[in-house]
C-alpha cells in the first residue's frame, strides 16, 4: 500500500506517532544493531498497551503520573488525533538509520478489539449474532407463587412511616411505566412507587431527603421512569468470553441461571455497581416477586437477596444463596491441572470444550464427535492431534485456535461454516500482521468487513 501523508495532527500523519515509536525503539535499544527492530502496540481512547518499562518509584513513594510523563504525552498525542476512531493497533519496522514503515490496523465492525494486545479480538462472522447463553430465555415458571411474606399492606405502612412526606407516583405514571416495559408491575413494586416516585427533581438539592429514601428502601432507588428490564442485552460480554458460559438452572434453584430475563425488573442499585431486581421468572424453588442481585462482576445468573420486597424493606434477607460452583457440568476444561482427557470430558450435555496447557501427546477430538450440544471449542497451539477432525463437530458456533491450526483449516477448506464467531489465539511474542492476515482470510469466507491496513513511512532519525 502506498504511504499516506496529511497535514495537521491526524491519525494518518506519521508525526503523530513519532513520540510513541521513539519510546518503543528506546525500550529495545539493547537489541539494536544491523537488523531492523519490530514494535507493536494498541492505543484506544480509554487505555493503551505498549511494551514500555515502568520506572520504580523511590522507596516509600507510590508511582505517580510524572514518572511516565513521556509515555502519557506520547499516547495523548495519538488519542487527540483519533477523530471518529476508538481503537488503533499498529506494527512498525524501524531500521537502524531511523527509517520506519508503520502499519496502522484499522477497526472493523466485524472484529472486537483485542484485550491489552495489538492482535484482533473475536471475529463476528454472522452480523448481530449472539452466543447461545445470550439467546436463552428462562424456563416457564407457571407454578411459582409469591412468598407468604409478600404483604403490600405491611409494605405500604412501613414505607409511609419511614417516608411521610414523599411524593408518590400517580396511577397514570405507573401505567405508563408498565406500557413502556411491556409487563405488569407486581403489586409490591406498585406500592413502593405509590409511596415515592424517586425523582431527583422532587428532592432538588436536598441530599438528606434522597438519602432518607435510599435508607428506607435499602438501595439507591431508581425513579418510576427509569425502571428497566434486565434482558440479556443489558449484560455486555465479549464473544470469546460469553461463548465459554453455560446456562445452568438446577431443579432446586431459587433463581434461574440465565443471562437476563423479561421478568427481571431492575429498580435500584446497591451503591457498588450491582443491580437489584424484582424477579417474575424465579427458579423451580423460588418465589414470584423475590428480590435478586445482578452482580457487575458476573455476566450470568443472579443471587437471591429476599423472598419478597416486603422482606427486603424490613431487612429480612434470604438465608439461602444461589449455588456457586467452580465448574459447570456443561463446560469442560482439559489441561494438566484439571480434566486430563477429552474422553473424560465427553458427555451428551457438553456445550463447551476448552483444551488448555498440556505437556503430553496431543488430543484426538473423536470422543466428542456427534455430541448434540457442543457449540464452543477452544484449543491451545499444539494440543490437537489433527485439526481437521474439527470438521466432524457440525454444531460449533464458536472456535478459537492458534494461527497454525487455523492455517491447516484454511488451506484445506475445512473452516466450519456453522460458526457465528471465531478467535485466533495469539501470544505476546507473535507480531500482529500475520494474525491479521489470517483474520482477514476467515472474515472473507463470510464476506465480512476486513481489517484495513494503512501504511505510513517516515524517519525517526538515528538512535541517540
Question: How would you characterize the overall build of this protein?
Answer:
Residues 1-7 and 322-326 have low confidence and may be disordered. 24% of the residues lie in helices and 17% in strands. It starts with 13 loop residues before the first helix and ends in a 5-residue tail after the last strand. The chain has helices at 14-27, 69-80, 132-135, 152-162, 171-181, 187-195, 200-203, 207-217, 239-242, 309-313, 342-345, 403-411, 432-445; strands at residues 37-44, 47-50, 87-94, 99-105, 123-124, 220-221, 228-229, 264-269, 275-279, 290-294, 303-306, 331-334, 352-355, 376-379, 398-401, 421-424, 453-459. It is of the alpha+beta class and 464 residues long.
Summarize this structure briefly.
The protein has 464 residues and is of the alpha+beta class. It contains 13 helices and 17 strands. The strands form three sheets. The protein has a six-stranded mixed β-sheet with strand order 5-16-15-14-13-12. Strands 6, 7, 8, 9, 10 and 11 form a six-stranded antiparallel β-sheet that branches.
Amino acid at each position: 500500500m502506498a504511504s499516506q501523508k496529511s497535514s495537521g495532527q491526524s491519525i494518518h500523519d506519521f508525526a503523530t506517532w513519532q513520540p510513541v515509536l521513539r519510546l518503543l525503539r528506546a525500550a529495545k535499544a539493547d537489541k539494536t544493531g544491523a537488523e531492523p527492530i519490530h514494535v507493536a502496540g494498541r492505543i484506544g481512547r480509554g487505555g493503551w498497551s505498549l511494551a514500555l518499562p515502568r520506572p520504580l518509584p523511590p522507596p516509600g513513594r507510590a508511582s505517580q503520573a510524572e514518572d511516565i510523563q513521556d509515555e502519557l504525552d506520547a499516547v495523548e498525542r495519538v488519542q487527540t488525533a483519533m477523530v471518529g476512531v476508538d481503537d488503533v493497533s499498529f506494527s512498525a519496522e524501524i531500521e537502524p538509520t531511523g527509517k520506519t514503515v508503520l502499519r496502522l490496523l484499522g477497526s472493523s465492525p466485524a472484529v472486537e478489539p483485542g484485550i491489552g494486545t495489538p492482535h484482533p479480538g473475536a471475529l463476528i462472522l454472522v452480523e448481530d449474532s449472539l452466543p447461545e447463553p445470550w439467546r436463552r430465555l428462562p424456563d416457564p415458571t407457571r407454578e411459582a407463587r409469591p412468598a407468604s411474606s409478600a404483604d403490600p399492606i405491611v409494605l405500604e405502612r412501613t414505607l409511609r412511616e419511614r417516608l411521610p412526606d414523599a411524593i408518590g407516583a400517580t396511577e397514570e405514571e405507573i401505567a405508563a411505566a408498565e406500557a413502556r416495559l411491556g409487563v405488569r408491575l407486581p403489586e409490591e413494586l406498585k406500592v413502593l412507587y405509590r409511596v415515592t416516585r424517586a425523582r431527583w427533581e422532587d428532592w432538588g438539592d436536598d441530599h438528606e431527603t434522597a438519602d432518607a429514601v435510599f435508607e428506607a428502601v435499602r438501595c439507591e432507588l431508581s425513579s418510576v421512569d427509569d425502571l428497566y428490564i434486565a434482558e440479556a442485552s443489558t449484560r455486555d460480554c465479549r464473544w470469546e468470553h460469553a461463548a465459554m458460559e453455560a446456562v445452568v438452572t438446577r431443579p432446586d434453584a431459587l433463581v434461574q441461571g440465565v443471562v437476563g430475563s423479561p421478568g427481571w425488573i431492575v429498580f435500584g442499585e446497591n451503591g457498588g455497581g450491582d443491580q437489584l431486581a424484582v424477579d417474575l421468572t424465579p427458579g423451580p424453588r423460588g418465589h414470584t416477586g423475590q428480590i435478586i442481585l445482578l452482580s457487575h462482576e458476573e455476566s450470568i445468573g443472579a443471587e437471591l437477596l429476599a423472598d419478597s420486597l416486603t422482606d427486603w424493606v424490613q431487612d429480612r434477607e434470604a438465608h439461602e444463596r444461589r449455588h456457586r460452583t467452580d465448574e459447570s457440568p456443561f463446560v469442560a476444561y482439559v489441561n494438566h491441572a484439571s480434566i486430563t482427557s477429552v474422553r473424560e470430558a465427553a458427555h451428551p450435555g457438553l456445550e463447551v470444550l476448552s483444551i488448555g496447557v498440556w505437556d503430553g501427546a496431543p488430543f484426538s477430538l473423536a470422543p466428542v464427535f456427534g455430541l448434540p450440544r457442543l457449540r464452543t471449542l477452544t484449543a491451545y497451539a499444539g494440543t490437537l492431534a489433527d485439526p481437521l477432525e474439527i470438521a466432524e463437530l457440525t454444531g460449533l458456533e464458536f472456535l478459537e485456535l492458534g494461527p497454525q491450526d487455523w492455517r491447516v483449516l484454511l488451506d484445506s477448506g475445512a473452516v466450519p461454516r456453522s460458526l457465528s464467531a471465531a478467535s485466533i489465539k495469539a501470544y505476546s511474542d507473535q507480531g500482529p500482521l500475520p494474525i491479521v492476515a489470517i483474520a482477514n482470510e476467515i472474515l472473507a469466507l463470510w464476506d465480512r468487513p476486513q481489517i484495513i491496513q494503512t501504511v505510513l513511512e517516515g524517519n525517526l532519525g538515528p538512535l541517540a
